[in-house]
Specification:
- The structure holds two protein chains of two kinds.
- By secondary structure, chain A is mainly α.
- Chain A is built from five helices and no strands.
- The radius of gyration of chain A is 48 Å and the shape is rod-shaped.
- The termini of chain A are far apart.
- Chain B is α+β, with helices and mostly antiparallel strands.
- In chain B, the strands form eight sheets. Chain B has a six-stranded mixed β-sheet with strand order 7-3-2-12-21-22, with no helix packed on it.
- In chain B, a hairpin with a 6-residue loop joins strand 25 (574-582) and strand 26 (589-596).
- The longest helix of chain B has 27 residues, at 70-96.
- The chains are: A mainly alpha, B alpha+beta.
- The A-B interface holds A 65, 73, 76-77, 79-80, 83-84, 86-90, 92, 102-108, 137-140, 142-144, 146-147, 150 and B 120, 123, 125, 128-131, 134-137, 192, 215, 217-221, 271, 280, 282, 287-288, 291-292, 295, 500, 502-506, 544-546, 617, 620, 623-624, 629-630, 633.
Chain lengths: 152, 639
C-alpha cells in the first residue's frame, strides 16, 4: 500500500483557509412539517373551540326550548283552570251556595229617550256609557300563543 | 479530523450488521454453536472473532429466514402491511357503501331508544271562545322491572305517592319480581306535579313520561255533543270522534342514547321529529245556553219521572246550534244524567203532531187550502184497515185549517193531506229534510225511518200526515220546523263554526246549505197559525211574558218491540215534544224540547204539558245570551 508522505514545508505552513466544520444539513421538510403540524394543531384547537361554542349554544337553545315547553304546559294548565272557574256549572253551584236562585223570567225596561239623551250629553258618549277596555278572550289569548309558538 | 471520521463511517456501516447479529435467535445460536464445534476440529483455537463472524455470515442460515437479510424482511413486512391495508380499506368501503345504511341503523338501534311524543290534541271551544274540552299536561308512571334494583323500596314509594290499592301493589310486585317485561304501567295520566315529584326521586327502573289528559272544564256541560276520548286520547264518541283526525295532529318522536343495560343517558335526548299539535275546533254551541238547556231538562225529566229528554236551540237564519243537549235516566241508579251519547242526532222517534206543520204548510204552498179553508172533521174515521182518531172525542164540526193545526186534529190534517195528495205531500216531507241525514254528519247519526211514498200501505198513507208511521231524529225535526221560522228556507243545521290552524288563524266553515221549500208568504201564514197554537192551542204553556212565541206540540206514540203501540200490558209509551220559535213576528231562535216516555197515565204525557214548559223557561236565558230584545212583550196572545 502506498502512503503519501508530507513535506516539512507544507507540514508547518499555516492554513489560510477557514476552518471547515461539518454541519447538519438543514432540512426544509422539518420546517414544513413543524409548520403544518402547528397549523393542524391550531385548526384542531379552533375546531374544538367552535364545537364547544356550538354545543354550548345548543345547550342554551335546548334549555330555552324546555322553558318554552314548560311555559306552554303551564299556560294549558292555567287556561283549563280558568275555564273550570268560569264554567256555568261551577258558577251556578257557587251562586246557590251564596243563596241565589235562577230567575224564572226577566224583564226588559224601556229607557225614556229624553233620559238617554241627557245621559249621553252629560257623559259625552255615543251610547256606550261604560268604556270597556279591550279584552282578549280565552280564544284570542290561545291564538296569540299559538302564533308565537308557530314562529320557529 | 477527516482522517478520524473515515473509519468511523465504515464502522457505522458495518456496526448494525454486527449488532443485529449479537443477540442471535435460538436457531441462529444453534447454527453458530454447530458451526463452531464443527470448525473446532480444523480451525486453530487462536482464530480471531472477526474471522469467526465472517465464516458464519458466509454460511447460509439453517432456518426459514436468512440472517441479516434486512431488505427482504422489510419487503415482507411492507407487503404484509399493504395487504392488510387493502383488506381493511376494502372492508371499510364495503361498510360505507353497500351495507352501510343497514349497519348504521343496526348500530343506532343498539345505543339509542326512540320514544313517541304524543301530539297535543286540539282544544274544543264554544262560540264565545270558552274551552269546552282541553288537553292538559299529565304524567304517566311506568316501570321497567328489569332495571328495578330494590323491589320492596320501589313498591313502597310508588304505593305511598300514588295511593295504590292492595291489588295494584300485588300486581306491580309480581311484575317486578318476574322481570320478564320491559314496560309496565303503574298509573296513567296523573297530575303533572306529582309526576315531577316521582321523577325527582330518580328511582331505578321507574319512568315518568309526559302524557296529556283530556279535560272537560265545564264538567258534563256539552258532553252529549263533545263526546269523549279513550285513555290514549283517541276520540270514540261525538265530535271528538267525528273530528279526531283534525284534533289529533301528528305524533313526533324523541331519540335518546342508552347505556348498556338500557339505562337512559341524561341529556342525550334529541328531538328527531317534533310533534305537530292538532287543530282546534270552534263550535256554534253557547256554553251558557247549553248548560241552561241541560239543567232544565234534568229537572223536567226528574220531575215528570220520564226516561230521557232532548233540547236543541238553533239560530233560525244560519242554522247554527246554540245547544244540543241529551239527558237520560240511568236504569241502575235511577239518576238522570247528561249522556255522552247525542240522542238528538242518533235516535229517531215518530214525531207525532209536530209533523202536521209540514202537511199544513204543503197545503198552503200548493194552494189547495188556505188558512181559513173549512173541513168537516169527525173525531174518528176509517182509513185503510184502521179507525183513526183525534186525541179527544168531539162532535163532527167544521174546522178551518188554522183550527185544525191549533187544536191538532189528526182527522183534519188527513183531510188536508188528501187535498195535497200523497205523492206531493211525500215530496214536501223530503224537502223539509225528513228521511236523510242532516249536514251535521254526526257519528252514528240516524236518517230516521221514512218509506218511499209508494211503499206506504193501508193507514200508513194517512198517519204520516200527523207524524205516525215515520220516524225522525230531533235534529231533523227542528230543522224541518225551522223552515217556517226562516221564511220558507231550509237551512242545514251546523255545529262547527271554524278551525284554528297551526298559524293561529281561524278558518271558518262554509255557511250552511239552504233550499227554498215553501214561499215566504206560506211561511208567514204558518207563523201566524203557529202563534195561535201557543196563544190558544195545545202549547199555551210555552208562552213567554217577553216574547211572542210560535210553535207546535207533538205527542207521538212509541212503537213497541211487539210491533204495535201497546206493550203486553196494554200500556202505551209516549214521545212528547214541542218545537217553537221566537220572536214570532221576526223569528230568530228555534227551540226543540222532547221528553221521552213521560208516564203514560199522567197529564204530563203530552207535548204541551211535558215539553212546552221547558221552552218557556229557556226563553229568557236564550234571549239574554243571544242579545234579543223583546218587541211587544207577548202582545200577540193578548190581542
Amino acid at each position: 500500500m502506498a502512503v503519501a508522505l508530507r513535506s516539512p514545508a507544507t507540514r508547518h505552513a499555516p492554513s489560510r483557509r477557514r476552518a471547515l466544520r461539518v454541519v447538519e444539513v438543514r432540512r426544509r421538510t422539518t420546517r414544513v412539517v413543524v409548520f403544518t403540524a402547528t397549523l393542524i394543531a391550531l385548526g384542531l384547537a379552533s375546531l374544538a373551540v367552535i364545537h364547544t361554542q356550538i354545543a354550548s349554544r345548543q345547550a342554551v337553545i335546548d334549555q330555552i326550548d324546555r322553558d318554552i315547553d314548560k311555559a306552554n304546559d303551564r299556560f294549558d294548565t292555567l287556561r283549563a283552570l280558568r275555564a273550570e272557574l268560569r264554567a256555568p256549572a261551577r258558577l251556578d253551584q257557587r251562586a246557590r251556595q251564596l243563596g241565589m236562585s235562577p230567575a224564572m223570567d226577566s224583564s226588559f225596561l224601556a229607557v225614556d229617550p229624553l233620559v238617554l239623551a241627557m245621559v249621553m250629553a252629560a257623559t259625552s258618549t255615543d251610547g256606550d256609557v261604560v268604556d270597556v277596555p279591550d279584552y282578549l278572550g280565552p280564544l284570542d289569548q290561545f291564538r296569540m300563543v299559538k302564533i308565537m309558538n308557530g314562529m320557529d | 479530523m477527516s482522517r478520524r471520521k473515515v473509519p468511523q463511517r465504515s464502522v457505522r456501516r458495518t456496526a448494525p450488521v454486527v449488532r443485529k447479529q449479537s443477540p442471535p435467535s435460538a436457531s441462529t445460536a444453534r447454527s453458530i454453536r454447530s458451526a463452531s464445534t464443527s470448525k473446532q476440529t480444523s480451525t486453530p483455537r487462536s482464530a480471531s472473532p472477526q474471522r469467526k463472524l465472517r465464516a458464519i455470515s458466509a454460511k447460509p442460515a439453517a432456518g426459514r429466514f436468512k440472517i441479516g437479510n434486512q431488505r427482504r424482511r422489510i419487503q415482507i413486512v411492507v407487503a404484509f402491511v399493504f395487504v392488510m391495508l387493502i383488506v381493511i380499506t376494502t372492508k371499510v368501503i364495503g361498510l360505507q357503501t353497500a351495507g352501510g345504511d343497514a349497519m348504521r341503523a343496526e348500530a343506532t338501534n343498539q345505543w339509542t331508544r326512540t320514544r313517541t311524543v304524543v301530539a297535543d290534541r286540539g282544544t274544543i271551544f264554544d262560540r264565545d271562545g270558552e274551552e269546552l274540552a282541553v288537553s292538559i299536561p299529565a304524567a304517566t308512571i311506568s316501570i321497567n322491572p328489569k332495571l328495578v334494583d330494590n323491589e320492596e323500596a320501589t313498591l313502597n314509594m310508588l304505593a305511598t305517592m300514588l295511593n295504590l290499592s292492595v291489588e295494584e301493589q300485588q300486581r306491580l310486585y309480581d311484575e317486578m319480581v318476574r322481570k320478564d317485561k320491559g314496560y309496565v304501567y303503574v298509573r296513567r295520566q296523573i297530575d303533572a306535579d306529582l309526576g315531577d315529584q316521582i321523577a325527582a326521586l330518580k328511582l331505578a327502573g321507574v319512568n315518568v313520561d309526559a302524557e296529556p289528559t283530556r279535560l272537560l272544564p265545564g264538567g258534563d256541560t256539552g258532553r252529549s255533543v263533545i263526546g269523549r276520548t279513550d285513555i290514549d286520547g283517541i276520540g270514540i264518541a261525538g265530535l271528538e270522534l267525528q273530528y279526531n283526525d283534525i284534533l289529533s295532529g301528528q305524533d313526533g318522536n324523541v331519540t335518546r342514547q342508552v347505556a348498556p343495560g338500557g339505562r337512559s343517558i341524561a341529556g342525550s335526548e334529541n328531538g328527531s321529529e317534533g310533534a305537530v299539535p292538532g287543530d282546534d275546533l270552534i263550535l256554534t254551541i253557547d256554553r251558557s245556553i247549553q248548560f241552561t238547556c241541560e239543567q232544565a231538562l234534568l229537572e223536567r225529566v226528574e220531575n215528570t219521572r220520564s226516561k230521557a229528554g232532548t233540547c236543541i236551540v238553533m239560530d233560525a237564519q244560519s242554522g247554527e246550534l246554540y245547544a244540543m243537549a241529551s239527558v237520560k235516566r240511568d236504569t241502575e241508579s235511577d239518576e238522570v244524567r247528561i249522556t255522552s251519547g247525542n240522542h238528538a242526532a242518533v235516535d229517531a222517534y215518530e214525531p207525532g203532531s209536530v209533523a202536521k206543520v209540514i202537511t199544513i204548510a204543503a197545503g198552503l204552498e200548493t194552494g189547495v187550502v188556505g188558512p181559513n179553508t173549512v173541513f168537516n172533521v169527525p173525531w174518528r174515521a176509517q182509513y185503510g184497515d184502521d179507525l183513526l182518531r183525534d186525541s179527544h172525542e168531539h162532535p163532527d164540526e167544521d174546522m178551518t185549517v188554522r183550527q185544525i193545526l191549533v187544536e191538532s186534529s189528526n182527522i183534519g190534517t188527513i183531510k188536508v193531506q188528501e187535498e195535497v195528495q200523497l205523492r206531493r205531500h211525500w215530496d214536501f216531507m223530503r224537502a223539509f229534510g225528513l228521511g236523510e241525514q242532516t249536514a251535521l254528519d254526526f257519528p252514528n247519526e240516524s236518517a230516521g225511518i221514512f218509506k218511499e211514498w209508494n211503499d206506504l200501505h193501508g193507514s200508513e198513507k194517512y198517519t204520516v200526515s200527523y207524524g205516525q208511521g215515520l220516524a225522525s231524529t230531533p235534529i231533523q225535526l227542528i230543522s224541518a220546523v225551522n223552515v217556517i221560522a226562516n221564511d220558507g228556507l231550509y237551512v242545514a243545521p251546523k255545529l262547527v263554526r271554524g278551525f284554528v290552524g297551526q298559524d293561529g288563524d281561524i278558518r271558518p266553515t262554509a255557511p250552511s246549505a239552504t233550499q227554498q221549500v215553501i214561499s215566504p208568504n206560506a211561511a208567514e201564514v204558518m207563523q201566524s197559525i203557529m202563534t195561535d197554537v201557543v196563544c190558544s192551542g195545545t202549547a199555551t204553556r210555552a208562552q213567554s211574558t217577553s216574547f211572542n212565541v210560535a210553535g207546535k206540540t207533538g205527542t207521538g206514540l212509541k212503537a213497541q218491540t211487539n210491533g204495535g203501540y201497546e206493550d203486553e200490558f196494554g200500556v202505551r209509551s209516549y214521545y212528547a215534544s214541542f218545537v217553537g220559535f221566537f220572536p214570532a213576528e221576526d223569528p230568530q231562535i228555534t227551540v226543540l224540547i222532547s221528553i221521552d216516555e213521560p208516564p203514560a197515565g199522567t197529564l204530563n204525557r203530552y207535548g204541551g204539558t211535558a215539553a212546552a214548559p221547558v221552552f218557556a223557561r229557556l226563553v229568557p236565558t236564550i234571549a239574554h245570551e243571544v242579545g234579543i230584545q223583546p218587541t211587544n212583550n207577548g202582545a200577540a196572545c193578548a190581542g
